[in-house]
Amino acid sequence: MAVTTPARERTRREIVRQAMDLFQAAGYNATSLQDIATAAGCSKATVLYHFSSKPAVLAAVLEPAAADLANLVGAAAELPRPAAQDLAIERFIDLAVEHRGVVDVLQDILPVIENMPEIAPLVADGIRLTELMAGSDDPMERDLAKFAINGLLGECRHAQERTGDDLRRLCDVALRRLLRRA
Questions:
Q1: What is the DSSP secondary structure assignment for residue 41, as one 8-state letter?
Q2: Is 14 left (phi over 0), alpha (psi -120 to 50) or beta?
Q3: pLDDT digits (tens, 9 = 90+) for 88-144
Q4: For the whole model, what pTM was predicted?
Q5: 140 by DSSP, 3-state: which?
Q6: What is the rounded CA–CA span in Å between residue 152 and residue 158?
Q7: Cβ-proximal residues to 7 (8 Å cutoff; 6+ apart), any chain
Q8: Which of 3, 103, 119, 157 measures 20 to 30 Å from 65, CA to CA?
Q9: What Rg do the C-alpha atoms of the chain give, in angstroms?
Q10: How many CB atoms lie within 10 A of CB 4?
Q11: CA triplet 62, 59, 144: central angle to 5 degrees?
């Protein structure tokens, strides 16, 4: 028996899908709610029925990646520091490759990301991931982790230049060389 999706849920998913495409192609700042509505085949009022604001649409676009990141941070937090660092590095690589499109969107909003309460949990988990990847409380190790994460996320933006396997190898080697064991 086929399961049917209610029209509201289909509309909501289409809004999120189209928003992701538009945010990736034009950037978050250059995309309006009207642009999203037009691409989704609905009115701006319909978008606002499902989402209270453009940042709320953004939060929905980012939600799958945010949930994966929260799961990673939660799992790593339960481990001793060296094992947590290894897990954080390994799973970060998978997340960065899997959510390449989200990386594009995040790069566009980085200057204002801390002013967006809708995605505050994602920001907090990103900070915690950096700490876990550093494997130490040493400020230099944390700076190296930030440097490595930002550089590798930049590489993830160029999907056409590397296969997922190539990107995984690059990220693994780079992270393990930059981040010494605690």
A1: T
A2: alpha
A3: 988 988 898 888 888 878 888 888 888 899 999 999 999 999 999 998 899 998 998
A4: 0.86
A5: helix
A6: 11
A7: none
A8: 3
A9: 18
A10: 8
A11: 55
User: What number of other Cβ atoms are within 10 A of residue 46's Cβ?
Assistant: 16
SS3 content of the chain, % helix, strand, coil (to 5): 80, 0, 20
Residue partners of 21: CB distance under 8 A and separation at least 6: 39
Place of tokens 């930059």: 178
Q: How far is CA 25 from CA 19, 20, 66, 88, 104, in A?
A: 10, 8, 21, 29, 9
CB 66 within 8 A of CB 118: no
CA distance 101 to 8: 25
Helix 54-77 and helix 81-98, axial crossing angle in degrees, nearest 10: 150
Residue 125: in which H helix or E strand, if any? helix 120-134
Q: Position 36: which residue type?
A: I
- Tokens encoding 96: 């960065």
**pLDDT (tens digit, 9 = 90+) per residue, 150-166?**
887 777 776 667 888 88
Q: Quickly list DSSP for 103-118.
A: HHHHHHHGGGGGG-GG
Residue type present at position 76: A
